[in-house]
Design brief:
Blueprint: E1 2-9, E2 14-19, H1 25-40, E3 49-50, E4 60-66, E5 69-75, H2 81-99, H3 104-109, H4 111-121, E6 122-123, E7 126-127, H5 132-146, H6 157-164
Antiparallel strand pairs: 1-2, 1-5, 3-4, 4-5, 6-7
Helix pairs in contact: 2-4, 2-5, 4-5
Length: 165
Amino acid sequence: MIQSVLIFNQLGKPRLVKFYEPLDASIQQTLVREIHTLVSKRPDTLCNFLESSQSVNGARIIYRHYATLFFVFLVDSSESELGILDLIQVFVEALDRVFENVCELDLIFHFDEIHYVLAEVVSAGMVVETNLKEISRAVTEAKRMAKPVQEGSRLGIGALRRGFA
């Protein structure tokens, strides 16, 4: 099971923090700081898997470093490391499709869309979708449904009153 998904920049500023197991906020902050120090110090030539430290509760840290961002998944022993690496790649490609070359600013200003894409990929700590076409279709449909109604199709209060009188 996936315990949490974290995205942070090289300075350790969290850009996405999603925990699928309830933890106290102070523990979450400590965990994010600790994972950042572990991951950011590792050279890119080493593997992307880390065994847990004391505060991670037996979870394995699996991460990918893209440009200025670290995408980190904390998983239990039932998950495959290579499968999670592929899942991170799918998640990043889905973000890339939604934002057309995703960057850190997209994560800052469109956090709601980032959470929606993540919810399409992972739900309650379980992987639900890995097909990029399906993820893109669902996100596009959600954007279409969220667009405001055009002015020509809105009824004003005057039109409603005329209908009742």
